[in-house]
Specification:
By secondary structure, the protein is an alpha/beta fold. It has one domain (3-236): TIM Barrel, CATH 3.20.20.70. The chain has eleven helices and eight strands. Strands 1-2-3-4-5-6-7-8 form an eight-stranded parallel beta barrel, surrounded by six helices. Helix 1 (16-26) runs parallel beside helix 3 (45-53) and helix 4 runs parallel beside helix 5 (94-110). The longest helix has 17 residues, at 94-110.
């Protein structure tokens, strides 16, 4: 995997013009772009089309969490749109994740296309033990992540989204080429913002992350491409 393919840039913007500008600036260095709730709510499938037209991959991070039948249909639609990576909330349960995985693969096979990678979202990097307790989860973030990782693996998902702090524990509890996509990445020269369980790009890669999700430390810089190249160099070294 090339270094530039290990970075996923989060496009936390709300207009097609901003998407166009950022992808044009970054695509020499970045090959995968994440569409989250803000951008998809504002621009819908047009954002997907812009990224794909420019020869880049799409990570649709909508964290599907609904009854199994609804999530199954959403996953099928994502495969039909040629999306490369999608997320489901692992808290949605085993059956929901199974349905999503099966539907996406079946639709891709029907279209004779590559199926999207399906990732289970474990515990958001903005949450700590106090936050988990407030929603009725008594264990630590690490314990909850490992429990959800087990469900995701059993459901046949390709991997999970988890903070760098849980990577080593996850690797000890999964088999084969189980992917770990790590958000909450903050270079040493960037602020933490609203993230609580963070790591630098170098730390996350050394711990065993496959992909790094990075937003504001790249997109909010005066020269986004220079920031991306700086991070790639950090990974390289």
């Amino acid at each position: 995997m090339a270094r530039e393919e290990r970075i996923i840039v989060a496009l936390d913007v709300s207009s097609i013009e901003e998407v166009e500008a950022l992808v044009d600036k970054l695509r020499p260095s970045v090959k995968i772009f994440k569409i989250g709730s803000e951008l998809f709510t504002a621009c819908g499938i047009r954002a997907v089309e812009v990224i794909r037209r420019k020869g880049c991959k799409v990570f649709l991070d909508l964290k599907y969490h609904d009854i199994p039948n609804t999530v199954m249909k959403a996953a099928r639609s994502a495969a039909k749109q040629g999306i490369d990576i999608i997320t489901v909330h692992a808290l949605g349960g085993l059956e929901m994740m199974k349905k999503a995985s099966q539907a996406a693969r079946e639709e891709a096979a029907r279209l004779q296309a590559s199926p999207p990678l399906i990732l289970g979202v474990t515990v958001l990097t903005s949450m700590d033990k106090k936050d988990l307790r407030s929603v009725g989860i008594s264990g630590s973030p690490d314990e909850e992540v490992i429990r959800l990782v087990g469900l995701a693996e059993k459901a046949g998902l390709d991997g999970v989204v988890a903070s760098a702090r849980e990577i080593e524990s996850i690797r000890k509890n999964v088999k084969g080429d189980f992917l770990i996509v790590t958000p909450g990445i903050r270079p040493s020269w960037a602020g933490r913002s609203d993230q609580k369980r963070t790591a630098t790009p170098k730390e996350a890669i050394e711990m065993g992350a496959d992909y790094l999700v990075i937003g504001r430390p790249i997109t909010a810089q005066e020269d986004p491409q220079a920031a991306a190249e700086r991070i790639i160099e950090e990974i390289k070294n």
